[in-house]
Specification:
A hairpin with a 5-residue loop joins strand 1 and strand 2. The protein has 76 residues and is mainly α. The chain has a domain of 31 residues. The chain is built from two helices and two strands, in the order ββαα. It is elongated.
Length: 76
Amino acid sequence: MAIESHSDEVIPTYDESYYEALASEEEIYLEEIEEELRSELISDAPQNDRPQPDDGEELETAFESYREAQASLFQE
């Protein structure tokens, strides 16, 4: 359905499912970018600075904080 204004312009309106689908696509895009950046940062780090197996929990905690911050941006 579209809203007609006083001019000849027709402005489309969208239902909630459209915005949910758009948000889902955006979330997937952000997750892909996050993984690309993580890979790039790890591969660019000097060998001694790369996360070791025992550093994985700390790294995951940092990324979880990042994900929560990103999610809070999209909440009403």
